[in-house]
Amino acid sequence: DTEVTQTPKHLVMGMTNKKSLKCEQHMGHRAMYWYKQKAKKPPELMFVYSYEKLSINESVPSRFSPECPNSSLLNLHLHALQPEDSALYLCASSQFILAGGYEQYFGPGTRLTVT
Amino acid sequence: QKEVEQDPGPLSVPEGAIVSLNCTYSNSAFQYFMWYRQYSRKGPELLMYTYSSGNKEDGRFTAQVDKSSKYISLFIRDSQPSDSATYLCAMSIIQGAQKLVFGQGTRLTINP
């Protein structure tokens, strides 16, 4: 099973709201990722967690706050977003990144609209 | 110059045709190569991955890597309308944290 699940599927939020995106995988993968994808563009890396520790932050604004509560879960907390943050937010996971298994498996995404 | 170049298309072919999708790259340190298929408004689905030069086959799909030319390809045989999607190549350096570098994606339509 190579499934990554994401909730919610769709989210509409105002610029003053606080919301969270959730991602879950049960493949035993120890690296998890958040990506942002705009229409007709490839995914753009935001954050990487390896062994529940933040290992890459691609200079993402602080209005996006990631959290990895355990090896299966990844959250993205959203606060005071801008309309230009509207996009498809994708979660991905891969095996232990220093021992092979570099391919990443993506979830279906959360389509976020900021009004 | 982008690290990974991929023709965005659109590419339109008749059903049953052989489709060839390609990416070139400039960073010789890339060692791991992936192809993803993405349907509209869905997440990317991993189709093929390969480490090192050569061919890898899975059903109607064949991935080819030529490191000497810095060129990778995905071939789809007996193409079906359900293959209509955007195809993304991705590659990475196997060192430390994992960052994928994506091509721009090629939009493919298979006409019945």
CA radius of gyration of chain B is: 14 Å
What is the multimeric organization of the chains shown?
Answer: heterodimer
The most extensive interface between chains reads: A-B, 28 and 25 residues
Order of helices and strands of chain B: EEEEEEEEEEE
How does the SSE layout of this entry go?
The complex is a heterodimer of chains A (115) and B (112).
Chain A: E1 4-7, E2 10-13, E3 18-25, E4 31-37, E5 44-50, E6 53-57, E7 64-70, E8 73-79, E9 87-94, E10 105-106, E11 110-114
Parallel strand pairs in A: 2-11
Antiparallel strand pairs in A: 1-3, 3-8, 4-5, 4-9, 5-6, 7-8, 9-10, 9-11
Chain B: E1 4-5, E2 11-14, E3 19-25, E4 32-38, E5 45-51, E6 54-58, E7 61-66, E8 71-76, E9 85-92, E10 101-102, E11 106-111
Parallel strand pairs in B: 2-11
Antiparallel strand pairs in B: 1-3, 3-8, 4-5, 4-9, 6-7, 7-8, 9-10, 9-11
Summarize the structure.
Chain A is mainly beta. Chain A has strands at residues 4-7, 10-13, 18-25, 31-37, 44-50, 53-57, 64-70, 73-79, 87-94, 105-106, 110-114. In chain B, the strands form 2 sheets. In chain B, strands 2, 4, 5, 9, 10 and 11 form a 6-stranded mixed β-sheet that branches.
